[in-house]
Design brief:
Layout lengths: L9 H6 L3 H27 L30 H12 L1 H24 L1 H15 L3 H12 L3 H28 L2 H8 L4 H37 L11 H9 L8 H28 L1 H5 L2
Helix pairs in contact: 2-3, 2-11, 4-5, 4-7, 4-9, 5-7, 6-7, 7-9, 9-10, 9-11, 10-11
Length: 289
């Protein structure tokens, strides 16, 4: 069954969506695409070498250094563009990993039910009680700061949310009459999951990914700000923000302002994209606009 047959036709849904939803979607998508370009080709478009020292330490923004330099004379704009690969790239990996795990476990638990569902729900509810940032802090402290440690910590923190979402959607679909009709016709479980259940919640996953990117990027920046993320000299937005606050009272405002602006743009872009997609793809939310 194609998405069109399942009622998922983005162009048609976009055309009937409110103007506010279209505006949020376009603005959010624009910001998100610009940042993802930095992730893909950031190392090739930086104005200068982000690791190159210079004598111009704590230099204010100029035509040569548009966002100034840090305490070691490195170009801040180059480090922020290069750092998108870590601040956003790790978030993308973590969100993708948690979504795949939540998709597999949630689909199996909701579809088959029984003891598997009860055991998984007990385990996930126990994880869901605590904020995901607590798990991130614990895992980073235990495993140590690093690239893959940070990605693993963030992905584990998001698994319970994705699991509960997929499980509830799977249960709502499998109880419908056409699923029983498919069983009577001889369809096996995998055919039903692949052709009827998965297309039903594909639109929800788009919203989940964009919202997860926002929370994941904020978590990575938070860990970097606390000194538990990717260690220096690797450029990362939270680490740059934490390092810049030391020189804020000395007048080097750019070391705090510009990393904060990059984090703000990422949060604004992904949240607007998530809200816009939710209104466009969700008929219940769309009717309330």
């Amino acid at each position: 069954m194609s998405y069109k047959k399942s009622g998922f036709n983005f162009r048609e849904l976009y055309n009937i969506a409110p103007r506010s939803a279209k505006a949020m979607f376009i603005v959010g998508l624009t910001f998100s695409l610009i940042l993802m370009v930095f992730v893909v080709v950031g190392p090739y478009i930086t104005p200068q070498d982000p690791y190159q020292f210079s004598e111009n330490t704590l230099g204010a923004p100029t035509s040569k250094n548009l966002m100034g330099t840090d305490n070691l004379g490195r170009d801040l704009l180059s480090r922020l563009i290069y750092g998108a690969r870590y601040s956003l790239g790790i978030s993308l990996v973590a969100v993708g990993l948690s979504l795949v795990i939540g998709l597999v476990l949630g689909s199996a638990s909701g579809f088959f039910g029984g003891n598997l569902d009860r055991i998984m729900m007990l385990f996930m509810d126990a994880m869901y009680i605590f904020p995901s940032f607590i798990y991130m802090l614990i895992m980073v402290v235990v495993l140590g700061p690093g690239l893959w440690q940070t990605a693993l910590a963030i992905s584990i923190g998001r698994i319970p949310y994705n699991y509960r979402l997929i499980r509830s959607l799977t249960i709502s679909v499998k109880e419908r009459g056409f699923i029983e009709a498919e069983r009577v016709l001889g369809a096996d479980n995998w055919y039903i999951i692949r052709n009827h259940i998965m297309p039903y919640y594909m639109s929800i996953l788009f919203v989940t990914v964009s919202l997860g990117m926002a929370s994941g990027t904020l978590a990575i920046s938070g860990l970097g700000f606390l000194g538990l993320g990717i260690p220096p000299p690797t450029p990362e937005w939270g680490t740059e923000l934490a390092g810049g606050r030391t020189y804020l009272l000395g007048g080097a405002w750019w070391l705090v302002m510009f990393p904060g602006v990059f984090v703000l743009i990422a949060m604004l872009g992904f949240n607007l994209l998530s809200d816009g997609l939710d209104i466009i793809l969700n008929p219940t939310v769309r009717r309330l606009q």
